[in-house]
Amino acid sequence: MSKIGSETNPLRVAIVGAGPAGFYTAERLLKEKNVHTTVDMYDRLPTPFGLVRNGVAPDHQKIKSVTKVFDRLAQKPQFRFFGNVELGTDITVEDLRNHYHQIVYTVGAQTDRNLDIPGIDLKNSHPATEFVAWYNGHPDFRDYEFDLSQERVAVIGIGNVAVDVARILCRTREELMETDIADYALEQLCNSNVKEVIMLGRRGPAQAAFTPTEAKELGEMVGADAYVLPEEAALDPLSEASLADADRATTRNVEIIQELSARGLTGKPKSLTIRFLVSPTELIGNEAGEVTAMRMVKNELYQTDNGTMRPRETEQFEEVPIGLVFRSIGYRGVPISGIPFHERWGVILNEKGRVLDSESKEPVLGEYTAGWIKRGPSGVIGTNKPDAVETAECMLADLAEGKTLSPAHPDLEAAANLVQSRKPTYFSYDDWLKLDELELAAGENAGRPRVKFTKVDEMLKALGKI
Ligand code: NAP
Question: Which residues pair with 331 in a beta bridge?
Answer without folding.
Answer: 112
